[in-house]
């Protein structure tokens, strides 16, 4: 490959668009009532960190359908470094966005 071809190819590569903040996609495995805060926190698992638009859409378009999850599992999309628990001081003024659907319509949501 000559320099001219390499230079041309470099300009043809898609540019990744960075997100303003890095985000982490997590999933919560429901463990039932009556557990400690630590047990609830330990039931949250990081899936991936998203730093650009391409990564976001790659994960969004390929995330397992709700019908493939166990009942009462929860996805979280939260800024990297912030754990999705109410006790975290970064969440004091935060909120949630929840979507509940009939189980037979969950894959459409």
Give an account of the 3D structure.
The mean pLDDT is 82. Strands 2-1-3 form a three-stranded antiparallel β-sheet. The longest helix has 10 residues, at 3-12. It has three helices and three strands, in the order H-E-H-E-H-E. It has 109 residues and is of the alpha+beta class. The chain has one domain (15-108): 2-Layer Sandwich (RNA Cap, Translation Initiation Factor Eif4e).
**Terminal Cα separation, in Å?**
48 Å
Strand content: 15-25%
The main pleated sheet reads as: 3 strands, antiparallel
Alpha-beta content class: alpha+beta
From the coordinates shown, what is the CATH architecture? Answer: 2-Layer Sandwich
The CATH fourth-level homologous superfamily: RNA Cap, Translation Initiation Factor Eif4e
As a whole number of angstroms, the C-alpha radius of gyration is 19 Å
- Secondary structure: number of strands: 3
Percent helix range: 10-25%
User: Which word captures the global form?
Assistant: globular
H/E series, N to C?
A: HEHEHE
Strand order of the largest sheet: 2-1-3
What is the structure about, briefly put?
The chain has helices at residues 3-12, 37-42, 53-60, and strands spanning 18-28, 44-52, 74-79. By secondary structure, it is of the alpha+beta class.
Describe the protein's topology:
Elements lengths: L2 H10 L5 E11 L8 H6 L1 E9 H8 L13 E6 L30
Which terms summarize this structure?
three-stranded antiparallel sheet, 3 helices, alpha+beta, globular, RNA Cap, Translation Initiation Factor Eif4e
């Amino acid at each position: 490959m000559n320099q001219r071809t390499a230079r041309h190819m470099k300009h043809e590569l898609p540019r990744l668009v960075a997100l303003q903040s890095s985000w982490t996609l997590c999933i919560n495995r429901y463990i039932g009532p009556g557990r400690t805060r630590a047990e609830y926190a330990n039931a949250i698992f990081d899936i991936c960190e998203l730093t650009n638009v391409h990564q976001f859409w790659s994960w969004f378009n390929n995330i397992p359908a709700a019908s493939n999850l166990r009942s009462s599992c929860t996805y979280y999309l939260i800024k990297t470094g912030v754990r999705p628990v109410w006790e975290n001081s970064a969440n004091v003024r935060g909120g949630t966005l929840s979507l509940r659907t009939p189980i037979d319509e969950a894959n459409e949501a």
